[in-house]
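Dock nicotinamide-adenine-dinucleotide; give full complex structure.
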Amino acid sequence: MDSIDDSLAGRVALVTGACGGIGRAICQRLAAEGVRLVLVDRDAEGVEALASSLASDTFVSVVDVSDAEAVASQHEYIVRQFSEIDILVNCAGILSNNKLLTTDPGEWRHVMSVNLDSALYWSQAVVPRMRDKGFGRIINITSFAWKAGGLTAGTAYTTSKGGMVSLTFSIAREFAGQGITVNGIAPCYVMTPMVSEQLTEEQRRTTLELLPVKRFCTPEEVAHTVRFLASPLSGFITGEIIDMNGGLQFD
Ligand SMILES: NC(=O)c1ccc[n+]([C@@H]2O[C@H](COP(=O)([O-])OP(=O)(O)OC[C@H]3O[C@@H](n4cnc5c(N)ncnc54)[C@H](O)[C@@H]3O)[C@@H](O)[C@H]2O)c1
């Protein structure tokens, strides 16, 4: 086999939840590598501000990722106006901490649609062209909650992230022979507003005591793992979920 060029320069990545804590770090990291970026978020102001801060070719897409028709039509628009997609990072997500007996049907459906359905819709949109080109990278930002049952995270969130893992396995299996890899990253307690604002002071203190590395994960560390999985040199890794849990669980 010929040697594989590890460069990402000139590739096109679509990142959902682009202007959130983790999404922003991913976009900054990929932009620094010369990746052209489609920034997807529902936060129009935030995503425009991010676009103007990046030293890379960018395209802004303001869309609710839980809306199947909106995702399909935005994708067609992106392809017409900007480019086909080489790398898809499904990062948009919402947290809900309600456990079983306090999760109502509306909340359940909302969390599922944003965290899980969106990854299906974007994957369905990009995969046909990835298959035609014989190259694609799909990276799903799931969560440690999927295997831990959610330490502080609620039932809907935890289940949505478990569903994302199964979706990763299913698409990875189906397209392994066509140059498309599909992997997940399962972080826990990344220092973004999800942790700084949505955990109580008491939860933050006990979590830090519990974490063997004695600190929270940083968004830049997650971005580093995205870059690794996006690499052409990572083509033999598919259907893998990379834990980033600071030593909470080994397996
Ligand atoms: N922060 C953590 O500790 C942690 C741990 C594990 C997994 N994660 C996952 O990482 C991802 C990013 O988390 P974060 O901490 O950066 O959160 P964040 O709240 O900072 O960012 C989430 C982004 O998603 C966008 N978004 C939400 N709903 C949307 C919708 N319907 N349509 C379009 N955009 C939407 C938001 O506008 C926001 O920019 C999420 O999927 C989250 O579940 C986070």
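Observed: Residues 17, 19-23, 41-43, 64-66, 91-94, 114, 141, 143, 187-190, 192-195 surround nicotinamide-adenine-dinucleotide (CB under 6 Å).
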